[in-house]
Amino acid sequence: MSGAELPSFSGDPSRSEIFYALGASSLGTVLVARKPQGVCAILLGDDPDRLERDLAEIFPHSARAPTDDALAPELAAAIDLAERPWAPFAPSLAIGGTEFQRRVWTAVRAVAPGTTVSYAEIARRIGAPSALRAVAGACAANVLAIAIPCHRILRSNGTLSGYRWGMERKRRLLEREQRR
């Protein structure tokens, strides 16, 4: 967790508050968002405005505000992760999702850097061997890019499949992990 205190909204105290910051990486723009409990989103894209709209769609009932200074450590860690996807991500995570999604994401986080597994293997690891589509859906719903490394999950035949942040980013992340 960051040592800097997040600012406080002056609005409705019952409304969830999310602060975010944007930065540049070799994979494009990185948006990191944080709730008091930890980093709740790491988004990748080419258009900062689109990433801000995506954040609003992901957390429609939360008040959102940009802040650079309070999130500088988290943003630096997220950008470092984009550059070195095998590196640990030190800031605490506020992982949302359903119970099933969290099981999938826990299994995905256990996949070692530089290796890949299939959606079928993740389904087997969580004790739901027939839930391939649901596993793929959980990977598609992941809003913590690279921190939950869904880029390491491939089709059963070993080929790349969809990636929320784009196939080229997935390919580049995997290449970086192989070269380290």
Radius of gyration: 16 Å
Oligomer: single chain
User: How many distinct beta strands?
Assistant: 6
In whole angstroms, how far apart are the ends?
27 Å
Q: List SSEs in N-to-C order.
A: EEEHEHHEHHEH
The helix fraction, in percent, is 25-40%
Estimate the mean pLDDT confidence. 92
Protein model, in words:
Helix content is 36%, strand content 19%. With 180 residues, the chain is of the alpha/beta class. It has 2 domains: 16-83, Methylated DNA-protein cysteine methyltransferase domain (Double Stranded RNA Binding Domain, 2-Layer Sandwich), CATH 3.30.160.70; 99-179, Winged helix-like DNA-binding domain superfamily/Winged helix DNA-binding domain (Arc Repressor Mutant, subunit A), CATH 1.10.10.10. β1 and β2 form a beta hairpin. α3 crosses α5 (132-141) and α4 (119-125) packs across α5 (132-141). The protein is globular, with a radius of gyration of 16 Å. The two termini are 27 Å apart.
